[in-house]
Write a structure and sequence with these properties.
Rossmann fold, alpha/beta, 4-stranded parallel beta sheet, globular, two-stranded parallel sheet
């Protein structure tokens, strides 16, 4: 098992092989793919939260978030695809409930774009024997959500559900009830997910 990080010294998981990887740097991605050519399950879980406002934030902030959350998984998946095809592997892309709910500015847009890419990759890779699973989840009790006071999922439980989904060949894993409720709401009028719009009519 490999654990990738921009600084491999930060990898402390017992038994994991540290792997230097900056998902925004094509050379770093290529080097990681060359070093870990025996990978059979690729987990795209790198993420950055800027949450830029579309009207007031610098456009560069939006671009920076897309570099990590969308182009990063794209570069990594393309680099590792040959190994995954050779070994009949699997891709797990970590999305968010915000793939379907625009509550965090540009972050939501990056996750929505990743969701769309995951669906396209699933279609492209299925004939090559590679499965693709999208993991959707709300707040998880990690450093990224340390300041969040809302209920958070246990990371170990999210991992268990994700790996069960990969083993079962699931197209999507919805890891908590908030995510399941939002997914159901996609078939309703837009105001079902954005009640402030109904109040404005």
């Amino acid at each position: 098992m490999y654990a990738a990080a921009r600084d491999p010294r930060a990898v402390t998981t017992p038994g994991a092989v540290p792997l230097a990887l900056d998902v925004t740097d094509p050379e770093s991605v290529a080097a990681a793919a060359a070093q870990a050519g025996d990978v059979t399950i690729l987990v795209n879980n790198a993420g950055g939260l800027v949450g830029a406002n579309y009207l007031t934030s610098p456009v560069d902030d939006v671009r920076r978030e897309f570099e990590v959350n969308f182009y990063g998984p794209l570069l990594v998946t393309r680099a590792f695809a040959p190994a995954l095809v050779a070994g009949g592997g699997h891709v797990l892309n970590v999305h968010s409930v915000l793939s379907w709910l625009a509550l965090s500015g540009s972050y939501s847009a990056t996750k929505a774009a990743l969701w769309s890419m995951t669906n396209a990759l699933r279609v492209d890779l299925a004939p090559k024997g590679v499965g693709v699973t999208g993991l959707h989840v709300g707040y998880v009790d990690t450093d990224m959500a340390a300041a969040v006071t809302e209920p958070k999922s246990d990371p170990a439980e999210v991992v268990r559900q994700a790996l069960d989904g990969v083993e079962a060949g699931a197209h999507e894993v919805l890891a908590d009830e908030v995510t399941r409720n939002v997914k159901r709401g996609l078939s309703a009028d837009v105001s079902a997910l954005y009640p402030q719009l109904a109040a404005a009519v």
